[in-house]
Design a protein that fits this description.
This protein has helices at residues 19-22, 27-40, 53-63, 82-90, 129-144; strands at 2-7, 44-49, 69-73, 94-99, 121-124. The chain has a five-stranded parallel β-sheet, sandwiched between helices. Helix 2 (27-40) packs parallel to helix 5 (129-144) and helix 3 packs parallel to helix 4 (82-90). The model has no long low-confidence stretch (mean pLDDT 97). By secondary structure, the protein is an alpha/beta fold. The chain is built from five helices and five strands. Bound molecules: 1,3,4-trihydroxy-5-OXO-cyclohexanecarboxylic acid (DQA). Residues 10, 73, 75-76, 78, 99-101, 103, 110 line the site of 1,3,4-trihydroxy-5-OXO-cyclohexanecarboxylic acid.
């Protein structure tokens, strides 16, 4: 089974960006952990990051009919992007929205998600460990989804 983990703007700065909120792990650390866990669980995990909305839309479009699941931390685009919402709606595989922090405990502009209405599941507030938890659960979730 194939999974793409898509990360949005500023997540390339993990490790040094607001570590009190996002922790000390870098995106490369998270990617390595996801790929290792994926391999152990029979998943081929592609891990990507972009600061550009259109590039994220293109990756979602490319996943249509070629990937079984999308895990997306759209970062700030979560709260603004109709384009990412629409692209996710066009993908009929399993979709998980992921956030390192819990946006509902933060500023009110983070309380709206354009991603949530287009996905099967939302994971937020588990820190960077959330990525590994989702990868571990995906085989079962994909099986249950049929
Ligand atoms: C985030 C939460 C967003 O509100 C923020 O813009 C991010 C990261 C998270 O993972 O907690 O960049 O998606």
């Amino acid at each position: 089974m194939k999974v793409i983990v898509i990360n949005g703007p500023n997540l390339n700065l993990l490790g040094t960006r607001e570590p009190d909120i996002y922790g000390h792990e870098t995106l490369a650390d998270i990617a390595a952990g996801c790929q290792e866990l994926g391999a152990a669980n029979g998943l081929d995990v592609q891990f990507k990051q972009s600061n550009h909305e259109g590039e994220i839309v293109e990756w979602i479009q490319q996943a249509i009919n070629s990937v079984d699941a999308i895990v997306i931390n759209a970062a700030a685009y979560t709260h603004t992007s109709v384009a990412i919402h629409d692209a996710l709606r066009a993908f009929s595989g399993y979709k998980v929205e992921l956030h390192i922090s819990n946006p509902h405990l933060r500023e009110s502009f983070r309380h709206v998600s354009y991603v949530s209405p287009a996905v099967d599941a939302v994971v937020a507030g588990l820190g960077t460990a959330g990525y590994a938890h989702v990868i571990e659960m995906l085989p079962e979730l994909l099986n249950d989804a049929g």
